[in-house]
Amino acid sequence: MPGIGRELFRSTGLGGKTALAANLAIDALTASSAPQRLLRFADRIFFAAEVDPYGLEPYVTDGSESGTRPLGDLYPGKEGSNAFPRAALGRRGVFTADTPDHGIEPWVTDGTLEGTRLLGDLIPGPMGSLSSGYVRLGQQAIFAARSGDLLTPSSSRPTKLRRAPRHCST
Length: 170
Fold this sequence. Notes:
By secondary structure, the protein is an all-beta fold. It has strands at 8-11, 18-22, 36-41, 44-51, 55-61, 69-70, 84-89, 92-99, 103-109, 117-118, 132-137, 140-144, 150-153, 161-163. The termini are far apart.
């Protein structure tokens, strides 16, 4: 499509059934929101997109223009939070984001602005835990944090974190 940068498209996989799902760029003729890191959870797709003047922030879509929306400006200004979808846990998506107050920490969303929140400030303050390596295990996400300890979000209470047991040698 002339004049459209890298944006979200949808397709049935059949010829002639591919179309633009959402154009998030403010200047729709020349700009691109460069959607990336797409992750399916529940009946939605969670992704990161770079839209002026917000930078790289989290978004959600149901595949339609009207069903595509931001999940917050977590790092105000052009910097962006560098949101990175990590794991799908039922009707929730877990992602990392970098914010001025918390650094890079895990966040959780149910796909709504109101339901998007910090999962845990594992290392309080702006340094952040630099959590990574997220793997879904049942209804939990297992991941490593900068402290080197494995942490898991509780499957019944997504805002409660608990330390995984340490390995014991015999």
